[in-house]
Amino acid sequence: MADYILPLILCITALAALHRREQTYDILIAGAEDGMKILKGILPSLVLLLSAVSMLRASGALDYAAEWMRPFLRHLKIPPETILLILIRPISGSAALAVGAELICTYGPDSLIGRTAAVMLGSTETTFYVISVYFGACGIRSSRYAPAAALFADAVGFLAASASVRWFM
User: Fold this and answer.
1) DSSP string for residues in 10-38
2) Does residue 117 contact residue 104 with C-beta atoms inside 8 Å?
């Protein structure tokens, strides 16, 4: 059934346009032009963000930060193996998913680490990606308190994920 939803929506839209005698192709072209304008606004932010992620990973800065944070996370009872996930999740969703999948494959899906990684992935957001895309699309130049508030929410999400896995699993 799910395979037919998108074609069904397209057919209904085309039939409605025919019934109203609208120029469907012209409407699609206008929508594509609007999409290109939005892309022009957010593309610089995305390129900068992806470049920064690549440089952090290649420089070894993430590994250094992970070693520095290890004692602090042990004190908070967060599995130290999830450090890289905690560091990379606010920056890159795909990299965080890869790290999470690696943790689950290494330690198992039913392990404390595997479950914590899965809950962390579902409880947090790719903060800088979201801020750059949404603020870039709206033309906002100063994010003011948004990054700090979002990173605080991510920290709470990581803590809550670890605590909930310990309590309920």
Assistant:
1) HHHHHHHHHHHT--HHHHHHHHHHHHHHH
2) yes
Q: Which pLDDT value is given to residue 87?
A: 87
Q: Would you mind telling me the total number of residues written for the chain in this entry? A: 169
Instruction: With beta carbons less than 8 A apart as the criterion, state whether 164 and 156 touch.
Output: no
pLDDT tens, position by position, 129-149: 888 878 877 878 787 888 899
Q: How far apart (Å, rounded) are the C-alpha atoms in residues 7 and 20?
A: 20
Q: Is the pTM of this model over 0.85?
A: no
Helix (H, G, I), strand (E, B) or coil at 126: coil
Q: What are phi and psi of 108, to 5 degrees?
A: 95, 150
Residue 18 identity: L
Token digits of residue 156: 């709470």
Tokens 């795909």 belong to residue = 94
Tokens of 34: 């609007």
Which three-class secondary structure state does DSSP give residue 100?
helix
Whole-angstrom distance, CA of residue 91 vs CA of residue 15: 42
Does residue 38 surpass a pLDDT of 90? no
Nearest to 82 by CA among 110, 112, 56: 112
How many Å apart are CA 73 and CA 88, to the nearest integer?
A: 15
CA dihedral over 150, 151, 152, 154, signed as positive or negative: positive
